[in-house]
Amino acid sequence: MNEFEKDPQSRNNDVVDSIHGFVWPFLFFVFIFAIGVVISVFGQ
After folding, report:
1. What does the buried/exposed string (b/e) look like for 20-40 if buried means 16 or more CB atoms within 10 Å of the residue's CB?
2. What is the CA angle 21-25-34, rounded to 5?
3. Membrane-spanning regions, if any (predicted)?
4. What is the CA radius of gyration of the chain?
5. pTM surpassing 0.70?
6. Looking at 1-44, which runs of residues are DSSP E strands?
7. Cβ neighbours around 43 below 10 Å, total
8. How far is CA 10 from CA 1, 13, 14, 23, in A?
9. How far apart are CA 29 and CA 22, in angstroms?
10. pLDDT band at 23, cuts 50/70/90?
11. CA quadruple 31, 29, 27, 12: dihedral positive or negative?
12. pLDDT of 18 above 90
């Protein structure tokens, strides 16, 4: 067995980390898009 498998730094599930890696950037870009939409609507 690999020595790194015996003593991992993080025992978190990788699925949770990948969900965080997708959700937070997605929400950030949705927020930026929403700001642009609000500026576009009020700018007319």
Report:
1. eeeeeeeeeeeeeeeeeeeee
2. 155
3. 22-42
4. 20
5. no
6. none
7. 6
8. 18, 9, 10, 21
9. 11
10. very high
11. negative
12. yes
Q: How far apart are CA 16 and CA 24, in angstroms?
A: 12
3-state SS track over 1-44: CCHHHHCCCCCCCHHHHHHHHHHHHHHHHHHHHHHHHHHHHHCC
Retrieve residue 11's tokens: 């025992």
Cα torsion at 35, 41, 42, 44 (round to 10°)? 140
Backbone angles phi, psi at 34, to 5 degrees: -65, -40
